Amino acid sequence: MNPLWKKAGAIGFLVFLALWVAGAIRALLLPYPQTPVWQLTGSIHEAGTRLPQGNNLKQIGLAFTPLPLVLDQPDVEKIQVFDKLAQLAIGTARFDDDKALVRAALAAHQAVVFNERNGGIAPQQRLTLEVGVHPEEFDALVRALRAIARLDSISVDHRDRTTEFRRLNAQRQALKKHLEAVLKLRGGANNPSIDDTLKLEQKIQDIQKELQTLAVQLGEMVGKESYYLVFVTLFEYQPGSRLDPTFTLPQRLFHGTLWAAGWWLALAASIGALALACISVGTLWPKSATRLT
């Protein structure tokens, strides 16, 4: 064999070997995407101000009592109010399949989707859901979601708001007594002046507004729909990432070989095309020079 071809073959093999090593290292160290923290918006304190809280109205027999009457029941001191919020980030290489599993888990536990956000393109798609679930289904739903794909992060916040509820209710009861006292003044036997009458009416209106505000706050805590919140983010990563448990070592080495072969063929084709171009120019150049002489 011509020594030139031997050298070319040896160089080609060494280049392929170097590419294969680089491809194997790449397959082993392919980075896993960072948890999309920006998707996990909201907190238990923010969410608790806009959604019904978890309460024990059903347990104490007040679930079917009209809301305004609940606050005047003798058992009002037995009411307990809680906030509970779970935030999960789940990574997957099978985004569409696992997205269907997430929705199936929500349906199985009668969860309600309050907000939904989709973003990104493959292989970096993201789905974030803000979900309300009944307290008795909360733990089961969290377990089902964390088992769907690779759990990247999870946090569960729990807050007892019973003391706050009782404080607001005591404030409401005090305002009601104050209103009764002011109304008695309005119906008194004395003949107050017009200025005193206007001041009295303004006082009554101010107390009534405060009572309405308190009623709204208390109503949010003991609403008929008792929910805990779950924020779940499903984000996609490229198959074969460093922490992808489904990619075994033989698979990684095989993909490294394919990657090396592709680059080697591209490099060989580029060198071959350049060599042929040089040969073609060298072949045509003497003819052109001969014609000019």
Lay out the secondary structure.
Blueprint: H1 3-29, H2 44-47, E1 54-55, H3 67-70, E2 81-92, H4 95-108, E3 112-119, E4 126-133, H5 135-146, E5 150-160, H6 162-186, H7 194-221, E6 228-236, H8 249-292
Parallel strand pairs: 2-6
Antiparallel strand pairs: 1-2, 2-5, 3-4, 4-6
Helix pairs in contact: 1-8, 6-7
Outline the structure in words.
- The chain has 293 residues and is an alpha+beta fold.
- Helix content is 54%, strand content 17%.
- It has helices at residues 3-29, 44-47, 67-70, 95-108, 135-146, 162-186, 194-221, 249-292, and strands at 54-55, 81-92, 112-119, 126-133, 150-160, 228-236.
- Strands 1, 2, 3, 4, 5 and 6 form a six-stranded mixed sheet that branches.
- Helix 1 packs across helix 8 (249-292) and helix 6 (162-186) packs antiparallel against helix 7 (194-221).
- Residues 37-50 have low confidence and may be disordered.
Key structural traits:
6-stranded mixed beta sheet; elongated; Alpha-Beta Plaits; 293 residues; alpha+beta
Round the mean pLDDT to the nearest integer and report it. 78
CATH architecture of the domain at 37-162 and 224-236: 2-Layer Sandwich
- Encode the helix/strand succession as letters: HHEHEHEEHEHHEH
Helix content: 40-55%
Secondary structure tally, helices: 8
Taking pLDDT < 50 over at least 5 consecutive residues as the criterion, the unreliable ranges are: 37-50
CATH topology of the domain at 37-162 and 224-236: Alpha-Beta Plaits
